[in-house]
Amino acid sequence: MAEPKYPLRHTTIENLQGLSLGIFLCMLGVHILTFCGLITGQTAGIAVIISYLTGWSFGAVFFVINLPFYWLAYSRIGLQFTLTSIGCVTVFSVLIEILPPYFVISSINTALGAVAFGALTGLGLLALFRHNGSLGGLGILALYVQDRFGFRAGYVQLAVDGVIFAAAFLLFPASIVLYSLLGAVVLNAIIAFNHRRDRYIAT
């Protein structure tokens, strides 16, 4: 069987389904996370912490926090990626506020919830990355570092998560932070092992 010629190019329909699937999986993951009262890293983690402490809408906080990162996306990665990320962030921010009445969770083991969050969100972000999108924020910075310096995006995000979780120990019970750290490790491991430009370079 002949090897495919690179770069392969996704069709518009393929991009739409990939981005839609990514948003859907991330939305389910964050819904489980917040039900368990856990936190996470990256921009979403900052938004979750602010939402817990203030009572403000997570979707609104997440949308606003992402705004400063779009210039980096435009200047360093490109217009298409920036517009796609803006669209993904906007759709995610709206749907995450609509979801709760339609996905009611009565009970879930906290450790299982952390792993489910990490797995669902990791796969969701991977789908977004492979279709030239993201959920903005620090994920944009991680992708830029990977493309510019070759340091994997998952490891960049894991380093940033370390700072966020260190601060979280001052705000939340240790058990909550440790369960949350489990979810973050699962999420970032999925991205680190699977988001490889040398293995998957379709655009």
Q: Report how far apart the termini are.
A: 22 Å
Helix proportion of residues, in percent?
over 70%
Radius of gyration: 16 Å
Taken from the alpha-carbon principal axes, the silhouette is globular
Number of domains: 1
Number of strands: 0
Quickly give the structural class. mainly alpha
Please state the average pLDDT score.
86
Taken as a percent bin, the fraction of beta residues is under 5%
Biggest sheet features: none
With helices defined by DSSP (H or I, 4 residues minimum), what is the helix count?
A: 9
Low-confidence sequence ranges: none
Helix-strand pattern, N to C? HHHHHHHHH
Molecular structure report:
- This protein is mainly α and 203 residues long.
- It has one domain.
- The chain has nine helices and no strands.
- α1 (12-35) crosses α5 (79-98), α6 runs parallel beside α9 (174-194) and α8 packs antiparallel against α9 (174-194).
- The protein is globular.
Entry summary:
By secondary structure, the chain is mainly α. It has one domain. It is built from 9 helices and no strands.
Give the arrangement of secondary structure elements.
Layout: H1 12-35, H2 42-54, H3 58-66, H4 69-77, H5 79-98, H6 110-130, H7 138-149, H8 153-168, H9 174-194
Helix pairs in contact: 1-5, 1-6, 2-3, 2-8, 3-5, 4-5, 4-7, 6-9, 7-8, 8-9
Features:
203 residues, mainly alpha
